[in-house]
Design goal:
- This protein is α+β, with helices and mostly antiparallel strands.
- The chain is about 25% helix and about 20% strand.
- The strands form five sheets. An eight-stranded antiparallel sheet has the order 12-13-14-15-22-19-18-17, with no helix packed on it. The protein has a five-stranded antiparallel sheet with strand order 4-5-6-7-10, with no helix packed on it.
- The radius of gyration is 28 Å and the shape is globular.
Amino acid sequence: MPLASPSGPDSRALAEPLAVDGREELARLGCAACHDDLAGAGQRLAPDLSLAAARLRGDFLLRYLEAPAEAQPGTRMPDLMAGRSSSEKAAVARELAAFLASEAASTDGSPAALVGDPGRGDTLYHRVGCVMCHGERPSAGAPAPLPEGGRSLDHVAGKYTSSGLAAFLLEPLGHRPGGLMPDMHLDRQEAADLAAFLDPAPAGASHALDATLVDAGREHFRTLRCAACHGGMGGVQPPIPFPAGPLGAGCGAEVPPAGLPSYDLSGAQRAALVAAAGQLDEPLSTEAQLTSTMAALRCTACHERDGAGGVPASLDRFLTTDEPDLGEPARRPPTLSGVGGKLRREWLERVLHDGASVRPYMHTRMPVFGDANVADLPGHLEALDAEEPLVFPRPEGEDWKEAREAARTMLGTTGLGCVSCHQFNTKDAPGFQGVDLITTPERLRERWFRDFMVKPTSKVADIVMPESWPGGEPVYDTLLGADTDRQLGAIWHYLALGRSARNPRGIDQPRWDVNVEGRARLYRGRSGIAGFRGVAVGFQEGLNYAFDANNGALAGLWRGDFVSVNWNGQGAGDFNPRGRAVQLPRDLAFAPGADTPEPWPVRPVKTEENPVNPDPTYPRQHGYRFRGYHLDGDGVPTLRYSIGAVEVEDRSVPVREGERTVLRRSITFDSPEAMPMVFRALAGLVEVPDSGGFVFGKLRLTVAPLSPLKPKTFELRSVESGSELLLHLPLPAGPSTLELTYDLAD
C-alpha cells in the first residue's frame, strides 16, 4: 500500500485517500479470531469488555449492542443480530448488558475524584496532538472537517460516564490493546480535563445489574461467539474454517446470510478483504509491512516520510513550542525520512515502546502504541534506511587529552557556541534550551551526525543551526590540525563521556539543597545512585532511599540530609544524596517462575569505550514495566510497577524499633493466578550473622517472620561479586504482601 505524495510544497497532508489495505482490514476486524485460516493477516486485539462495561453509560451500551454502527459510526464491532426484529434485538441487548455488568472490573483508582476543567481540556486537546487524528473541535459551533483518515469523536459525548472517559484516556492501551488509540502520556488531572472537554454533559450511570438477566446474557455471549474477540470472558471459542467460496458470500457480504455478523463495510473495504484473503501466503516486503503499520497507526498524521504525510496546513497552527526562536524543528514533529539511518536501534526502541523524547519544549507528544503493535517497526526502519557505517576512532593517551580539551572548547561559548542554544548534561543553556547535547551518542548514528554537522539543513530543513564546517572545512581552524573528522570525532567521544564530561564554558548551574520539612519529600531525576529514572524519597526522621524506576530496584539508602539538586529550566535535574549512601544493585529485582535465572539478568552497563546500551530492551524483555506512583496525605509515595501479569505496589516508611528508626518496606503483589516468583533482595558481600537477618555493609535486612507472604525458601547463591540473596515467593492468586525491614547503621 504505497503512501500518496503531497500535491504541493505547502501541503503536508496526504493529497488523496490511502488505498484500503486488505491485510490491515482483516487484522482490524479480527477475522482471525474466528477463522484461523486468516491468521497470516494478524489480529488487532479487541477492547477489554470488563473495563468497558464498567465505564460506559447504560443507555449507550444498550444502543451499541443493538446496532453498533448506528451508535458509533466507523466501529469495527459487527452487528451480531442482523436480521432479528427490533424487539428481539432490544431484549438480547439487555441480557448481554446485564452479563457484562456482572463481569465488570472495579473502577477503583480511576480519576473519578478529580474535577475536570473543560477549558484546560480544550487547550490540551489542541496542543498535544489529539487534533491531528480527530480534527479541530471549536468550543462553540460545529467541529471542523476531519483530517484525511481521521476518526470523529462525536459519539464520545454520551458514551462514557465522566469518570469512565477519564479512566480510558489515562490508560487507553489497557482498555483497547490494539493500539489504534495510543497512550498520550496524560496524568490524572489532564485525563479528567480532557474528559470534561470531550463530554461536558452531566455524568451518566453505568448499566445497572439486573441479576435475573445475567444467565441469559452469558448464553448469548457464548452463542454469538463474543469471546472469540474479547478474551477473558466466556472461555475460548473453537475456530471456524474459512468458507471455500468467495469472502463476499459470508460475513463480508453487503447483506450476510442469517446468523452471520454484519460489518458496516464499504465496497472498497469488501474488495480489499477478498483480495487480501487470497494472498496471505504471499510474504509482504519489508517496505510494505512498514507502510501498512504506519498507515494503521496514523504515523503520517504528524510525521512526513519520503514526501508523504505530515501535518496539513489547516492544522499547522496547533503545532506550538516553548522555544519558537529555535525555528520550525522546535514545533514540528521530525521527519521519518531516513530515520532508521539516523537513530540507533536502541533509541528507536525507546521512542516507540516508551515514548522517549529529547524535545521537552515541543508541545505535541510522541504517543505510545503498545509493545506488540510496534515491535517490528525498529527493524523495518533500520533495514530500509541503512547506510554504510561510520565509526569515529577514539584517540588514546595524549591525543585523547588534546581531543577532550578541543571538544570542550568548541562546544563552549568562546568556541562554536553550541551550548548557547543547547542544554548540556541537563544544565540550562544561557540562551535557548535546545536538545541536550549529551544525548547525542546515545541517540544518533555517527554517519548521520557527521553529515548533519557539516551541513545541518541537508538533514533538518528550516533548522536555525549555523554551519561550522561549511563545505567540510572547519571554521575553528586552530584545533586538531583543522581536520574536520578529528574535530567531529573529538566532540562525539567527549559527549559519549556522559555525566563525567566537564561543563563547557558558558554552562554554570549552581546546585541547591532540597530539605525535608514535615511531610515526606519526593524528587525525580537523573542520579548516580539510581540512574536516569531515579526517584528519591526523604523523610523528616532523616532516613532516605532512592529507587531506580527504569529497572525496578531499591537502589540505595542513607541517613541525614536529603539531596542536592541541579535544576534545569523544566524543574527536573540530577540529584545526589547528601549523606553517605549504601548503594544497592540496580538490576531487575523480580523474576517470575520457580527456577532462579542462571545467571541473574543484570542491567547492561555502558562505558567510555562502549557508550551505547548493548541491551536496549532490558528490563522490558523480562516483563518489568514502571506504572508510576501515588502519594498519600503525608506525601509518602506508593510506587507501582508490574512483572508480567503481576501488578506490584511498593511502599516504604520509617518506623521505630526500640531506639532505632528503620525503613519498613511493604511490597504488595496482585497476581491473576497462583504462581512462584523469585526476589533478588541483595547482591554483593552478603553475610548471615548469628543474630539473624542478612548484612550488606552498613545495612541489615530482615524479612518479617509473620509476613502475609512468607518466603518459601531463602537462597544465598555464590556469584563473582560475592553472593546473591534470593527469596522464593509462592504468590497466591489475588493480593499478597511481603514485608522487609532495612536497618542502616549510623
